[in-house]
């Protein structure tokens, strides 16, 4: 009886396994002609992350960024023209955040639904002249009593409020009319103005920043 011989030798099995392994490896290798996948929109999870980042950035820009608003009226002459100028307003300074005396702010007028543009003349704890110059003490509605209706009456600005006055006091309705304004009504700080005809961009700086510093020490 002849000896038993397997149908495949060891070398045959080894060669077949080698061929199968190489075929599997080559099939997993990306084809150079296949276009690459979009790194942002190629996967639903990546798309969700990109959308969330865009929404967060938009929210931060809207809440703490900038917006433009037209300037109108003579109350801020000569700083701003009656017509033809736009203001660049920083919303980072909403609610009085980082606002100093001398800054120009946009705020909600406390006696109506409009908004105004005035200069900060006093902050909480400061003392200000109530009804001078060019004002009528009888028209003040808040913070003015019978005792301080004199021409040189003074008052201390309460906590959480500020005193706003227009640069053109003769044509301005401001804190001399409706008293201290809550800081919560401040919508932003005017950081620049833009004139359309002719086009001109100008940063609006606090005039008190240019004053020299004096030391009380001898």
Automatic annotation (TrEMBL):
SUPFAM superfamilies: LexA/Signal peptidase (SSF51306)
EC number(s) per entry: 3.4.21.-
Top-level taxon: Eukaryota
Molecular-function GO term, any one: serine-type endopeptidase activity
One GO-annotated biological process of the protein: protein processing involved in protein targeting to mitochondrion
KW S-adenosyl-L-methionine (keyword) present: no
Record-annotated active site: 75, 118
Domain Peptidase S26 residues, every copy: 52-192
Record-linked Pfam families: Peptidase_S26 (PF10502)
Main location per the UniProt record: mitochondrion
Localization annotation: Mitochondrion inner membrane
UniProt keyword list: Hydrolase, Membrane, Mitochondrion, Mitochondrion inner membrane, Protease
Record-level GO cellular component terms: mitochondrial inner membrane peptidase complex
PANTHER family xrefs: MITOCHONDRIAL INNER MEMBRANE PROTEASE SUBUNIT 1, PROTEASE FAMILY S26 MITOCHONDRIAL INNER MEMBRANE PROTEASE-RELATED
Family: Belongs to the peptidase S26 family. IMP1 subfamily.
Protein's name according to its UniProt entry: Mitochondrial inner membrane protease subunit
Organism annotation: Bombardia bombarda
């Amino acid at each position: 009886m002849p000896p038993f011989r397997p149908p495949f030798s060891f070398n045959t099995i080894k060669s077949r396994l080698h061929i199968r392994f190489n075929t599997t490896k080559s099939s997993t290798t990306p084809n150079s002609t296949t276009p690459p996948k979009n790194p942002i929109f190629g996967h639903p999870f990546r798309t969700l992350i990109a959308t969330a980042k865009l929404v967060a950035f938009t929210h931060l820009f809207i809440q703490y960024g900038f917006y433009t608003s037209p300037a109108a009226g003579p109350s801020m002459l000569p700083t701003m023209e009656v017509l033809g100028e736009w203001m660049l307003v920083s919303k980072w300074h909403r609610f009085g955040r980082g606002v100093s005396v001398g800054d120009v702010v946009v705020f909600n007028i406390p006696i109506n639904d409009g908004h105004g543009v005035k200069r900060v003349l006093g902050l909480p704890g400061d003392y200000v002249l109530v009804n001078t110059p060019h004002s009528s003490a009888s028209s003040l509605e808040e913070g003015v009593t019978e005792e301080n209706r004199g021409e040189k009456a003074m008052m201390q600005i309460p906590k959480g409020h500020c005193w706003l006055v227009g640069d053109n006091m003769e044509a301005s309705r401001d804190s001399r009319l409706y008293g201290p304004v809550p800081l919560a009504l401040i919508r932003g700080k005017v950081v620049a103005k833009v004139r359309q005809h002719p086009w001109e961009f100008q940063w609006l700086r606090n005039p008190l920043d240019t004053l020299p510093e004096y030391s009380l020490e001898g």
